[in-house]
Amino acid sequence: MPVEVVLELVTDALKVALLVSAPMLLTALVVGIIISLFQSVTQIQEMTLTFIPKILATFLALVITLPWMIQTLMDYFSRLFSAIPGMLS
After folding, report:
1. What b/e readout covers 44-82, taking b as 16+ CB neighbours within 10 angstroms?
2. Helices 3-42 and 51-88, interaxial angle, to 10°?
3. Mean pLDDT of successive 10-residue segments in the chain (89 residues)?
4. HEC sequence for the chain
5. 28: CB partners within 8 A, 6+ apart
6. Which end of the chain is less packed: N or C, by CB atoms within 10 Å?
């Protein structure tokens, strides 16, 4: 298998992984920043305060975006499996 094909496969896999994980990661980032601002303004420095809202927001983002994530992964694997015969020859 040529190096170009392998690089393309790895690049596509990384793009899909980043695309699928982005909604949850961005949600956790935004919620973390909001809670950090709240803690700075109120001077509440409780370390455990950030965990529950982040977990709930990340779970909500997962539930909302799960159909899109599944469709994105199915499209990627469909393209990948249909390209396998061309890679073997």
Report:
1. eeeeeebeeebeebbeebeeebeeebeeeeeebeeeeee
2. 170
3. 86 96 96 91 82 93 96 95 83
4. CCHHHHHHHHHHHHHHHHHHHHHHHHHHHHHHHHHHHHHHHHCCCCHHHHHHHHHHHHHHHHHHHHHHHHHHHHHHHHHHHHHHHHHHC
5. 54, 57, 58
6. C
Q: Which two tokens stand for residue 14?
A: 């990384």
- Output the six-digit token pair for 37: 């601002």
Residues 28/57, Cβ–Cβ less than 8 Å:
yes
pLDDT score for 89? 67
CA angle 5, 80, 13 (to 5 degrees): 70
Segments making up each domain of the chain, as ranges? 3-88
